């Protein structure tokens, strides 16, 4: 009976994820939408226009360009040598390869492609279905990062990946801290930070107008679409992400909490693979503007951790992390469908999917699951020196 109930509960949790994914991919055609933003920005840069004011000038696209001018200028330079279409094909290939690396490495870690498929569909009502085809550079980055971790690569390849990614996604420079979290190594993160600082310092000196435009566009977008994590806490407080003493002090406290929590959780992880995955999860908490795809590492973390847990710990993990990331959003989604059952709302495809509610809340559930995972790992009752 318990097995039947578990399977039924899992199926009910997967339904909103499947419907959400189908709605985004089939109805809204959410394929590589962030790549379209970059294409518009590259076209504007090649035409010597401002890449941060192309909205309405590029097929009426609805997303602003908020990525740094450093990466935009680099890609525009590549486009002049290869042509924009060839550069686009190269990006699609790199994106597909990064996504495949993530799914492949996660499958090898968990030993089951079925488990990976279930976890991709289930967290926060299937948001990963859309994130894996969104076109955001974070997805191939996490694919490459997970593949390096699974292969047991040292700190140098991981640091090189972080430095290479920073011109396009500056927040991902935080992942230069991975050698410090794993082995208390200072030199590699310091060298990586110097390289990233030199890149942005040179960009600010050589292209001050575009650099200022980027900061203005990124800050405005962060306030309008603040994401989750620290930025969500700032939004709830009524403040804006405009800098200032209060924001800096608040982030310093949050960062100190995240660093201490991560160091404690890493120290209590029983295997090198788990220590690396826990370090990645803790680094994600440092990102001021956490997004849904930044929680992708919850999947390999759960798969690698599960065999090391005893029966009691598995129940705790499912109740806490699975509750926030899977069961709670699915339960609320089903409760919102009661209006369809009672006939007080029209039984249409749109009312069934309820996409707006999912989009507005999916990241908060994933953030809660990520934070719960780190807290549980840091304060689990078992002796950290004794693997299961």
TrEMBL record:
Keyword hit for Membrane: yes
Domain of life: Bacteria
This protein's UniProt keywords: Membrane, Transmembrane, Transmembrane helix
Segments crossing the lipid bilayer: 86-104, 116-138, 158-178, 185-202, 246-267, 317-335, 355-379
KW Phosphoprotein (keyword) present: no
Protein name, UniProt field: DUF2029 domain-containing protein
């Amino acid at each position: 009976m318990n097995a039947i109930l578990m399977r039924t509960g899992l199926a009910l949790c997967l339904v909103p994820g499947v419907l959400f994914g189908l709605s985004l991919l089939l109805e809204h055609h959410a394929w590589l939408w962030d790549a379209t933003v970059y294409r518009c920005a590259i076209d504007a840069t090649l035409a010597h226009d401002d890449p941060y004011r192309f909205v309405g000038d590029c097929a009426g696209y609805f997303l602003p360009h908020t990525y740094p001018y450093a990466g935009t200028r680099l890609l525009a330079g590549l486009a002049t040598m290869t042509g924009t279409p060839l550069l686009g094909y190269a990006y699609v290939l790199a994106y597909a390869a990064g996504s495949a690396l993530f799914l492949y490495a996660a499958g090898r870690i968990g030993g089951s492609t079925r488990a990976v498929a279930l976890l991709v569909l289930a967290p926060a009502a299937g948001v990963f279905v859309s994130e894996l085809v969104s076109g955001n550079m974070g997805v191939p980055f996490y694919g490459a990062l997970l593949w390096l971790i699974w292969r047991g690569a040292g700190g140098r390849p991981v640091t090189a990946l972080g430095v290479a990614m920073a011109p396009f996604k500056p927040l991902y420079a935080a992942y230069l801290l991975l050698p410090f979290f794993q082995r208390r190594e200072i030199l590699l993160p310091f060298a990586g930070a110097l390289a990233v600082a030199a890149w942005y310092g040179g960009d600010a000196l050589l292209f001050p107008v575009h650099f200022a435009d980027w900061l203005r566009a990124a800050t405005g977008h962060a306030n309008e679409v603040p994401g989750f994590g620290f930025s969500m806490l700032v939004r709830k407080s009524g403040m804006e992400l405009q800098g200032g003493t209060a924001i800096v002090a608040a982030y310093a406290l949050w960062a100190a909490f995240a660093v201490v929590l991560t160091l404690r959780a890493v120290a209590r992880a029983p295997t090198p693979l788990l220590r690396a995955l826990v370090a990645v999860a803790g680094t994600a908490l440092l990102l001021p503007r956490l997004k849904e795809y930044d929680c992708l590492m919850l999947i390999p973390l759960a798969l690698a951790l599960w065999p090391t847990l005893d029966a009691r710990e598995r129940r705790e993990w499912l109740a806490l992390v699975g509750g926030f990331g899977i069961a709670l959003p699915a339960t609320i989604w089903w409760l919102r469908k009661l209006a369809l059952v009672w006939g007080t709302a029209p039984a249409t495809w749109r009312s069934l999917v309820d996409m707006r509610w999912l989009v507005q809340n999916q990241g908060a559930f994933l953030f809660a699951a990520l934070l719960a995972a780190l807290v549980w790992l840091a304060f689990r009752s078992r002796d950290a020196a004794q693997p299961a």
